[in-house]
Structure formats: structure tokens, C-alpha cells
Automatic annotation (TrEMBL), chain A:
<keyword id="KW-0472">Membrane</keyword>
<dbReference type="Pfam" id="PF12730">
    <property type="entry name" value="ABC2_membrane_4"/>
</dbReference>
<feature type="transmembrane region" description="Helical">
    <location>
        <begin position="150"/>
        <end position="172"/>
    </location>
</feature>
<feature type="transmembrane region" description="Helical">
    <location>
        <begin position="62"/>
        <end position="83"/>
    </location>
</feature>
<keyword id="KW-1133">Transmembrane helix</keyword>
<feature type="transmembrane region" description="Helical">
    <location>
        <begin position="104"/>
        <end position="130"/>
    </location>
</feature>
<protein>
    <submittedName>
        <fullName>ABC transporter permease</fullName>
    </submittedName>
</protein>
<feature type="transmembrane region" description="Helical">
    <location>
        <begin position="230"/>
        <end position="251"/>
    </location>
</feature>
<feature type="transmembrane region" description="Helical">
    <location>
        <begin position="179"/>
        <end position="198"/>
    </location>
</feature>
TrEMBL record, chain B:
<feature type="region of interest" description="Disordered">
    <location>
        <begin position="297"/>
        <end position="344"/>
    </location>
</feature>
<feature type="domain" description="ABC transporter">
    <location>
        <begin position="2"/>
        <end position="227"/>
    </location>
</feature>
<comment type="similarity">
    <text>Belongs to the ABC transporter superfamily.</text>
</comment>
<dbReference type="InterPro" id="IPR003439">
    <property type="entry name" value="ABC_transporter-like_ATP-bd"/>
</dbReference>
<dbReference type="InterPro" id="IPR027417">
    <property type="entry name" value="P-loop_NTPase"/>
</dbReference>
<dbReference type="GO" id="GO:0005524">
    <property type="term" value="F:ATP binding"/>
</dbReference>
<protein>
    <submittedName>
        <fullName>ABC transporter ATP-binding protein</fullName>
    </submittedName>
</protein>
<feature type="compositionally biased region" description="Basic and acidic residues">
    <location>
        <begin position="297"/>
        <end position="307"/>
    </location>
</feature>
<dbReference type="InterPro" id="IPR003593">
    <property type="entry name" value="AAA+_ATPase"/>
</dbReference>
Length: 256, 344
């Protein structure tokens, strides 16, 4: 069957370039390492925290602190998977081999998504478990209410950030342009707009803000979001779907 | 068999390919010739479905490219040598192409051997020279053992050894009954390899002819005369009803005349000749004459010319259809044509 052939081909493409192992490896190491560091610091400073902060303390979310930086490596992974086809000129060879452009794009994204999910699951479980070790007395367990959902939520969040980046790269085609838009957005624009009260109401619907609701167990006191973890998943999925649909429509009609 | 029917591609207001209709027949090498920017690459990209035609169609064995199941087994193409991910090894590059078209793994090793890249199969493509990249691209084209092969300017930038290799490869592919469609902007290159010729200029079809016919119709032969009694010789030739082209260097050229006849004519009038030599214009000149009007980026040709071959039309000249068909305007490169004749 043709789709199976293309899936196999895309898997070969993915595993045969260094950037795959590099970006996913970086995402895992940074997320876990930074998460452990912040968890240890929070554990030390716990006594100095205000009562309000102590009451809304979310040990699960604290152990995922490294994901804010690790997700950027996932974004790079997603962008490179798609945009490197264009920057290297491989796209012409690829589309000559698989002229059904939908099959080509979605096979590529399927394979890359599955790999990203595997890496994200490793990241979220390792970050949680090692983070709890660092939190010592203030830690929680996987068996506690909503914790397992949050750990899976973190994995789904990271995966969907990669898929969103793939869709954006399919729209923009250039890796530099895609990264130049996505990196500052997720690293600077979204966190800043999300903490300024005037823009909070809009920023809550950004893909990363919405997706991060999935990894919270305790709702922060100053949260303005009108949705819970499942609502957050829905909003992030809508962003991903929009990026993929536009990316596909452009690929289908554009000259390669 | 590749069939183009009214194939047209416009980019904004610029028409890159303009109602092209021709077929590439099986079992021979068809040369696709045109000056830079004539629309050769755009045409080939439309054959592969990379660019969507504005109108018209192109069919491969009666089907649109995207209707082909496992297209690499129908048609293999080399568009540019660098259409690959530099971070991937030659072997993996070919492997992912093979897998996408259900081609067995063993074939990858086979084509690497055919193009002589076995030793560097595990090396990353970004370290490859242009020639090696070209070979890897050709390996990709041969991968599916297709009946049709399409190469876009395959000898561009190659060293003599690489050029020789590609020429022989194309000949052996055609000898094995395959269809070879190869583009070039060099007439001399085509004269060595192609059996059939399709010439385009500014996206329009200028000629669709066998190589032999093209050579017969377009190689201008003339006799060059040089005499210290130039004015008298001109009078004598004029009286005999023979058209003369004066070149800048003082030599006279007679199109289609025979050296014997001209020599005897001069002798009967007791004229001294310093030169009486039959000349044959190159195919390159013929190609330039054909595409003269459609060349997109002109170099300035020499304006100080006395008599134009096309302008000095006289009765006996009209009997030669290929000469009469020569464009009225100045062919580009005419200045070096003169220089060339001077030097010859």
C-alpha cells in the first residue's frame, strides 16, 4: 500500500539526519535538568514563600518548569522536519517521488509526531519523577488526584507544540523565518503578554498558554483562564489543526 | 513517451512557457535546447508535477504525473544536483526514495555501483563535489529502472571526465530502448548526443526536428574569397548574378557557391585571388540564428556592418529556403561570427 511505503520512507528520512537526535535529545535533557534544578531551589526556599503561595503549591507543575525551555527544542525539531525539505531543495526530489502532496505531508507529520510523542513521554515522566526527588518533603506522587493526567498532559503538550511547529513550517517553508517567528513568540511574547493584566485575557488563548493548563494539578490563584485542562487541550488542538490545514492547502496549490 | 499539449506557464505577467506542444518519443535521445531563460527547466518541472501549468497538459504514458503509481518506476529525473538533504548519506538518500516507491533495498546498492559512488555511500551528501552530487542525482533517477529519463542540463559545471561519463550513460540508456529527454543550452553538446531536437525560445516552440534534418537545413555553407582586386571581383560576381556578403575584414563571402565555379569565374576575368576557401558555419551559429529573436538577455552586437545576409536578398538566394528563413534582424553573437570567420 502506498501510504505504508511513504511512512517507511519518512521514517528513514527522520532517522538519517543528525538534527533529529540533536533536537529531541536537547528537549529531553534541558526539560529534565532545568526541572530538577528549579525543583531543588523551590524546596530550599519553601519556608520563605507566602502562605497563599504555599496553599496553591503545585509540586507537579514545578517539576515541569524545565519544559518552558525544553519546548523550544521541540519547536526546532518540528520546524526542521518540514522546513529542511525546502531549505535543502530535497522537496523537489521528495515530491517527484511522492506526487500525492497530502500523502507526503501527512506521512511526514505522522512519523515525526509519533517520535515526538515518544520523546515527550520520556521527558514528562522523567521530569516528574526526578523533580519530585528534588522537592523532597514537598513532593507528590503519581497516585495523587489529577497527577497522572498532568504528566500525560505535559507529554501531549510538548508533542502538540512540535506538531504546531510542523504546520507553521509547512506554511512558511523557510526554517529561519519559522524559527524567527516561533522562538521569540513562545519564549518572550507569550510569557510577557500572559503576565500583563491588560493582555492576559487574550494571551490565555495562545497555543502554549492554553496547552500548559494540561500540566497543572492546582489552578494558580491569579489565573484568568475560563477553561480547565481539557479546554486547554481543545484550544491547542484547534491551533494545531488550523496550522496543518493551512499548511496542507498551501502545499497542495503552490509550485514546489 | 511524454506528451505536451498546449502547455503554458505564466508567472504574473511573464509567460515562461507558451503553448508548447510536442512529444518525446521512446527509444531515442531527445535534446531540449534553448538559450538561458527559455523555459526548459519550467517545462521539466511541469512534467514532474512540481509546477502547476497555467493551461494545457503534460502526460506521461497517457497519465498525469500524480496519477502514476510509484512514479519513479515510470520516469526518473535529474533536475538539479543539489536537490537533496546535505546531512543525509548517499545511501540513506536513495533508500528513502526507494522505500517511497516500493523499490527493493538491493537496488540502492546497485545504482550506487552504476554511478561509481559505492566508496562514499555512507558519506554525507554535503561533502560531495558538484560532479558527485550530479552522480547521486542520476542514481536517484535510475533507481526505479524507469523507461523514461529526464535530465536538466546534466553536464553543467562538470569536468571533461564527468561530461564524457554522462554522454556515454545517455547513449547506453537510449541504446537499451529507453526514452531520454535532456535539456541543454549548448548546441555542440546536443549535436554529440541527441537524435531528435526540440528547440524553444521565450517559452515558444521554434523547432521540432530530427538532428539530421536540423544539421542539413541549418548548416550554412559558403565560399570565402580574398582578392587584391576587390572592386573588380565584386563587379564580376555581380554581373554573374551571384550574391556577395562583404565582411568587415575585406573578404567576400558567397553563400552556397562552389569554390570550383568561383575560381574559374575569377580566372576567366584574370583576377588574382589570395584566398578561395569553402567554409561551413557551425551548428552553434545555426542555433543562434534560430533563437536570435527570442533571446531574453541580448549582448550588444556590432552595429557597423555593411551587408546583412538576410537583407541582401536576391533572386537566386530565395531558392534556398533555409537562408530565406533566416531572421531579418541582427543575430546576436554576429560580432563574434565575424571574428570567427576572420580567424578561421
Amino acid at each position: 500500500m502506498a501510504a505504508a511505503q511513504v511512512l517507511r520512507s519518512e521514517w528513514t528520512k527522520l532517522r538519517s539526519v543528525n538534527s533529529t537526535a540533536l533536537t529531541l535529545g536537547l528537549a529531553i535533557v534541558v526539560s529534565i535538568g532545568l526541572g530538577m534544578l528549579i525543583s531543588a531551589l523551590v524546596n530550599n526556599d519553601f519556608k520563605k514563600m507566602s502562605v497563599a503561595d504555599r496553599l496553591s503549591f503545585d509540586p507537579t507543575f514545578v517539576s515541569f518548569s524545565g519544559l518552558t525551555l525544553g519546548q523550544l527544542a521541540m519547536v526546532v525539531f518540528g520546524v526542521l522536519v518540514v522546513a529542511s525539505e525546502y531549505s535543502t531543495g530535497m522537496i523537489r526530489t521528495s515530491l517527484a517521488a511522492v506526487p500525492q502532496r497530502g500523502t507526503f505531508l501527512f506521512s511526514k507529520i505522522t512519523v515525526a509526531t509519533l517520535l515526538a510523542l515518544a520523546a515527550s513521554l520520556v521527558t514528562s515522566f522523567a521530569a516528574f519523577l526526578l523533580g519530585q526527588v528534588m522537592l523532597g518533603d514537598h513532593s507528590t506522587t503519581l497516585g495523587a488526584p489529577n497527577v497522572l493526567r498532568a504528566v500525560f498532559g505535559a507529554a501531549v503538550y510538548m508533542t502538540l507544540m512540535a506538531v504546531f511547529s510542523m504546520g507553521m513550517a509547512a506554511i512558511l517553508r523557510s526554517p529561519m523565518l519559522s524559527l524567527g517567528i516561533l522562538m521569540p513568540f513562545f519564549f518572550l511574547v507569550s510569557p510577557i503578554l500572559g503576565s500583563v493584566s491588560a493582555t492576559k485575557k487574550v494571551a490565555q488563548y495562545f497555543p502554549d498558554r492554553a496547552g500548559q493548563k494540561m500540566m497543572q494539578v492546582v489552578t494558580p490563584p491569579n489565573d484568568v483562564a475560563h477553561y480547565g485542562p481539557w479546554g486547554g487541550l481543545g484550544i491547542l488542538l484547534a491551533w494545531v489543526a488550523a496550522a496543518l490545514v493551512i499548511g496542507y492547502a498551501l502545499l497542495k496549490n503552490r509550485d514546489a | 513517451m511524454i506528451e505536451l499539449d498546449g502547455l503554458t506557464k505564466r508567472f504574473g505577467t511573464k509567460t515562461a512557457v507558451d503553448h508548447l506542444t510536442f512529444s518525446v518519443r521512446p527509444g531515442i535521445i531527445t535534446g531540449f535546447l534553448g538559450p538561458n531563460g527559455a523555459g526548459k527547466t519550467t517545462t521539466m518541472r511541469m512534467v514532474l508535477g512540481l509546477d502547476n501549468p497555467t493551461s494545457g497538459s503534460v502526460l506521461i504514458d497517457g497519465k498525469r504525473y500524480d496519477q502514476l503509481k510509484d512514479p519513479l518506476t515510470y520516469i526518473g529525473a535529474l533536475l538539479d544536483a543539489k536537490a537533496m538533504h546535505g546531512g543525509r548519506s548517499a545511501y540513506n538518500h536513495l533508500l528513502c526514495l526507494a522505500q517511497s516507491n516500493g523499490i527493493p533495498k538491493a537496488r540502492v546498492t546497485e545504482v550506487l555501483d552504476t554511478v561509481g559512488l559505492t566508496a562514499v555511500a555512507r558519506k554525507k551528501a554535503k561533502g560531495f563535489s558538484l560532479g558527485m552530487g550530479q552522480r547521486l542525482g542520476i542514481a536517484g533517477a535510475l533507481l526505479g529502472d524507469p523507461r523514461i529519463l529526464m535530465f536538466d542540463e546534466p553536464v553543467n559545471g562538470l569536468d571533461p571526465e564527468g561530461i564524457h561519463w554522462i554522454r556515454n550513460l545517455m547513449k547506453s540508456l537510449a541504446a537499451a530502448g529507453r526514452t531520454v529527454f535532456v535539456s541543454s543550452h549548448l548546441m555542440s553538446e546536443m549535436a554529440l548526443t541527441a537524435d531528435h531536437l526540440v528547440v524553444i525560445g521565450q517559452g515558444r516552440l521554434l523547432a521540432d526536428t530530427s538532428m539530421a534534418d536540423f544539421i542539413r537545413n541549418n548548416s550554412r555553407s559558403y565560399v570565402r574569397l580574398r582578392s587584391p582586386q576587390r572592386e573588380r571581383l565584386l563587379d564580376v560576381l555581380h554581373e554573374a548574378g551571384i550574391t556577395v556578403v562583404e565582411t568587415g575584414s575585406g573578404a567576400l563571402e558567397v553563400d552556397g557557391g562552389s569554390a570550383e565555379q568561383l575560381g574559374e569565374l575569377a580566372a576567366s576575368h584574370h583576377l588574382t585571388l589570395h584566398e578561395l576557401s569553402p567554409q561551413q558555419a557551425s551548428l552553434e551559429e545555426a542555433f543562434m540564428r534560430l533563437t536570435a529573436e527570442s533571446v531574453e538577455y541580448h549582448a550588444h552586437s556590432d552595429p557597423h556592418r555593411t551587408l546583412e545576409p538576410g537583407q541582401a536578398a536576391e533572386p537566386h538566394r530565395a531558392a534556398e529556403p533555409h537562408q530565406a528563413a533566416a531572421p531579418e534582424s541582427q543575430p546576436w553573437g554576429s560580432s563574434w561570427q565575424q571574428k570567427n570567420r576572420k580567424g578561421a
